Q: What sequence folds into this?
């Protein structure tokens, strides 16, 4: 079950995320669950598979905002790195394992909520 303590142990900056959610724990946990279901995760995977740098940037940038507001640091840090790699690119660059890391971190957090 996803709790503030679970998120803290995961590496999220719970204090920062909670502050953005008016220090309302129920609201914060609801927003985290919504953030983990953000369609931009799938859009990112598809865009990178299709070597579409513009779409990949847009998806990553969207995740940067939503995941950043929730202070989910283990997902946010690689998303930020990916955004900077893709910024202004029209041709796909080698993203290394960043997309896999982002998805794996999201999946890890989803499993904690089971």
A:
């Amino acid at each position: 079950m996803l709790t503030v303590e679970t998120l803290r142990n995961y590496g999220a900056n719970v204090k920062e995320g909670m502050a953005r959610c008016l220090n309302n724990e129920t609201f914060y946990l609801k927003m985290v669950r919504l953030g983990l279901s953000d369609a931009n995760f799938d859009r990112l995977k598809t865009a990178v598979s299709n070597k579409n740098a513009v779409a990949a940037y847009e998806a990553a940038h969207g995740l940067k905002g939503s995941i950043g507001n929730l202070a989910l640091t283990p997902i946010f840090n690689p998303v930020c790195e990916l955004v900077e790699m893709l910024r202004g690119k029209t041709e796909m660059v080698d993203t290394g394992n960043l997309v896999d890391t982002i998805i794996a971190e999201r999946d890890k957090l989803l499993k904690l909520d089971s």
